[in-house]
Amino acid sequence: MYEKIIQNYLTINNNIKAFSPNVNLIVVSKNQPIESIIKIIEIGHINFGENRAQEALRKWEPLIASKDRK
Q1: Where does residue 44 fall: left (phi above 0), alpha (psi -120 to 50 degrees), or beta otherwise?
Q2: What pTM value is reported for the model?
Q3: Of the residues 22, 24, 35, 50, which has the fewest C-beta atoms closer than 10 A?
Q4: What is the pLDDT of residues 17-70, one digit of tens each?
Q5: 36 and 2 in contact (C-beta within 8 Å)?
Q6: Which of 38, 12, 39 is nearest to 25 (CA)?
């Protein structure tokens, strides 16, 4: 499952960079589990968007806290 997510991300990001290196992809994490978000972070992506502030807080507070502990 995660391989498909990573492959799709890399394909889209590479297409964007080929068109314009000054454009950044924003990954929408709406309705995605934290595990999927972690896989994208692990390959270096840092720009994410979320539809609802409550959803963002529920996902990102634990991710940030775990990063701070490392």
Answers
A1: left
A2: 0.78
A3: 22
A4: 999 999 999 999 888 888 889 999 999 999 999 988 888 888 888 888 876 666
A5: yes
A6: 12
Q: What is the DSSP letter of 51?
A: S
Three-point CA angle 24, 29, 34, nearest 5°? 125
Which secondary structure element, helix H or strand E, spans residue 41, and what is its range?
helix 34-42
State the Cα–Cα distance between residues 29 and 49, nearest whole angstrom: 6
Residue with tokens 């950044």: 24
User: Which residues fall within 8 angstroms of residue 39, CB to CB, at 6 or more apart?
Assistant: 2, 5, 6
Please report the beta strands in 3-62, taking only residues with DSSP state E, as ranges in sequence order.
27-28, 48-49
How far lies 53's CA from each of 20, 56, 64, in Å?
30, 5, 15
